[in-house]
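Hi support team,

I submitted a single chain yesterday and got back a structure, but I'm not sure I'm reading the token output correctly. Could someone confirm the output below corresponds to the sequence I sent? I've pasted both exactly as they appear in my results page.

Thanks,
R.
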Amino acid sequence: MTDVLIICGGTGGHLSPGIALSEELKSRGFSSKLCISQKSIDTEIAKKYEHIDFERFSGKGFSGGLLGKLQFFQQLVCSLPKIFKMIQNEKPKVMMLFGGYLSVGFGLLGILLKVKIVLHEANGKVGKAVRLLQRFAYRVYLPKSVMLKEIKKSKVCHAGYPLRKEMVAMEKAEARKQLGLECEGSLLVIIGGSQGAQALNKWVIDHFEQLIEEGISIYCISGLKNDLHSYDVSTNSRGEQVTIKMVPFSDNMAAVLSAGDLVVSRAGAGAIAEITRCEVPSILIPYPYAADNHQFFNAKIHESLGGGILLDETHIEKLYQEVKVLISNQSLLEQISLNLMNLNAVDASQEIVDDLEAAIRQKEYGS
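Hi R., thanks for writing in. Yes, this is the structure output for that exact sequence:
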């Protein structure tokens, strides 16, 4: 029997909090198993966690027009026998669903098999899977600014985004050393996320020479699909050495974020949570094709809390000027970092597991 069966994966934004929760459960003596997708992003992240039990499932998101939606239902039906077998074998006391397409099949069979279901929504706008399953949930974890009118308030617990234990801020010099960066001036970190990185990669390439001349070094995560590798050290007209490094993926995001003076990032809930944990100012450019435009709502909330700046991709031509002005404004950067410090006061993993313990104990004692 497994204490908590965690359904996550499909994107780094779903998998990372699942790992964080699994680690917190293990530290308290509870067992867990993670059900993830077969995507390359899940495979890359899971490689680092040999102590966690992963099981991979096929599936497809509910997107892409009529054909895409038909493929979603086809994959869902095909996955149900494996999901049924998993639930029967593991007999979980609680099933934790982080949203995304994997949650649908597990949620529906969990309801049928009378498993206690809890849901986690990380985004500023509630996703389709959570909206579908919310009525049947024992608990729904939501960001503090998000409400659901359709369910009882007693079912809702406002909690943040669980982060892996290694996601801690570090000294800037040490972070840059870990990344192999030889730069002493300002460093701009650019993160495109597991999808939608091309616009930001293009921006880096188009503004390469201008950034060098301004003395701004760059560390850019270009995305696994793009496979862009480069490392250049240049000298500008003032004799300043500037480093430009592009990598497709990093499993050391604490160092990546801690190394930067400013981050330009997509606005996934996970990215924002990690930016907040490392207390680094950011310019957030929501991925315009994200489901339900949830990244825009994430960025808007983060900006309203003083944690960064929202810039729509339709105005990406303004990004260079925004970067140039903000990265040289030390007092404003310090104020944003102070705001982030205040937002960084609660450990969401501990908060959620504190609440989950009651559900696990109820099942143990037959209630």
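A quick pointer for reading it: The chain has two domains: 4-160+346-364, 172-343. Let us know if anything else looks off.

Best,
Support desk
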